[in-house]
Specification:
mainly alpha
Length: 306
Amino acid sequence: MTDPTPPTNPQPTTSRPTTIPFRMLLDEAAKISRRHVRSVFLPMSLFLALLKGLSAIVQVVWMQEYLGALESGDIARILPSLGGMGCLGVVVALVTLFAYAVLWATALDAVAGRPVSLRSRARWLFEPRVFGTVLILVLCLSLGLIACLLPGFIVASILAFVIAAMTEEKLFGTEALGRSSRMALFNPRERFLESPAFKAFVLVFVASMIAYGLSLVIQAPVALLQQLLILRDSTGGADLTGASRWVWISVPAQVFAGFTSAAVQLYLAMGMALLYFDTRRRVDGWDIEEALDEIAPPVSPEEVIP
């Protein structure tokens, strides 16, 4: 009769929270986006389409005024109109970015399973601490884009969790920016492809390229047709003001661009919300286990009593 095999001592294992596969995250973002077409996409797309349409109408009116002043040589009319259009561009860009902030906050509510309301999040945006933090975020993103396109994407990746830090952790100002940067750069395994900053960079870059591609597909044919019609009228003896009537063709294209940008931003917001919750789970889980290890260090296999 042989002796039974002595029981082996259990080997302690270190269980660390792992990240969800990036492809699964992208698929889940698409599913959640489809579930919120009526409650989120339609209102936001209508707002952006209206904003872009009104902006395009103002630009057309300004273009006709500008060409008329240029043709008559009235410099006194040209300079104020240029300044006015510059201010309009800044205002439209700021309103668009604030609308994106509302969309991102709403996406966090959707992913977290809370009631979804763009209206309540719009009111939340105008709270002083929130509004100030978003202004700081917009300033940082603008400086990154001014420096160069690539630094702008890097800054956007590091600060991708600022909105989430405000909605989920009630952090504002520099605390929200610091929390976002720490989470984005959290990479204890030192694997580049698992870095939250890299994943955020991919999300922002891909969404930007999709938005740029859709804009090009929509506006390039319209711009080409517009230029051909203006050239035809100009060569036919029409003055610049008369030829500029074809600029109105660009207004429907701008309105349609509002719908496409809302769709891209909704998908990006859902993806970034999922990435935030996944990263926060890993960051907080890692910190808890490290704290427990400091209180009671793990026992080595030699110290386990058989």
